[in-house]
Amino acid sequence: MSAPLVDISSVSHRFGQHTVLKDVSLKIEPGSYTILLGPSGSGKTTLLSILGGFVTPSEGKVFIRGEDCTSVPPAKRPTTTVFQDYALFPHMSVGANVGFGLRMQGVDGATRAAKAREALALVGLAAAFDKKPHQLSGGQRQRVALARALVIEPAVLLLDEPLGALDLKLRRQMQDELKAIQKRVGTAFIHVTHDQEEAMALADHCVVMNDGRIEDEGPPERVYARPATRFSATFMGESTILAGTVTEATDRTSTVATPVGAVSLPGALPVGSAVALAIRPEHLVLGTAAGGVRLGTAGVSDVVFQGSFKRVLAASIEDPSVQFIAKLPATATVQPGDTVAISCDTDRIILLAD
């Protein structure tokens, strides 16, 4: 197996008495699109700053291409960073902005211009070479910042919430363009966001962070379908969480007592152990699921039409502290005040590690 492009080894960091990263280890493979996902204060931006050389960790090491870059300044490591505010020079042309990093490297003017044009063509802005940043839209300025970062051919491109300032439609368009550009250039992208939809749209490697630690990591499909922890299950998409206790177990199945009834799960679990079960909204059924498990009845409290589906909130009749979150077809006739049966296919129930 080839060595990772980036190897973050046991990194911790403190600002004064406040610890923002706690023994974080992470490997990034060449050509991957990695998303650091988490709420504000989870440590994801600090970790990106350490990768970019803007912050030196209190403990631990950062290796890029097998070399110790822990204390190497930003200009001397094989990374570039695209910030949320783009940081374009307003007095320079777009071409000069894109070529600025090459200018700092001592590249001659003709070569800078040629490479800047190539980079602008890569992001679909070949015609903008002589324009000024203020003449461009927000999405176009974002692509100029991307071209400026890519033109120096970094081993790793770091993106700090680069789409945060864009409206929803433009953000989704730029998600498609970012992924397409990353595939074309083959550079490893490491992208910070708190937007779970953005993470699932872009990543082939998703890293969920919380309170300075990595909660879960892997392909986004696995992290969503089989989250490792309760936090991951509730941050990477929504989930209904059921607390339970294992009451019976055989070699192949275990029975878990929950506030809404007994649930049978595959696999042997220790009798008496406390567990947490998660169910994604699209896997809850209002009514009876063929071959599924009944989860009692619930009173519908809210129905929100969201275009392609309806998001339904319902409180369990058996235990009102249990709030079911269901995602139903847009044509579903459910409405607030209805009392409905709740069920789920047993195979769709997620056993959480915590």
TrEMBL record:
Pfam families (UniProt xref): ABC_tran, TOBE_2
Listed transmembrane segments: none
GO BP terms, alphabetized: quaternary ammonium group transport
One annotated Gene Ontology cellular component of this protein: ATP-binding cassette (ABC) transporter complex
ABC transporter domain mapped to chain residues: 6-236
Keyword tags: ATP-binding, Nucleotide-binding, Transport
Recorded GO MF terms: ATP binding; ATP hydrolysis activity; transmembrane transporter activity
Family: Belongs to the ABC transporter superfamily.
Protein name (Swiss-Prot/TrEMBL): ABC-type Fe3+/spermidine/putrescine transport system ATPase subunit
Taxonomic placement: Bacteria, Pseudomonadati, Pseudomonadota, Alphaproteobacteria, Hyphomicrobiales
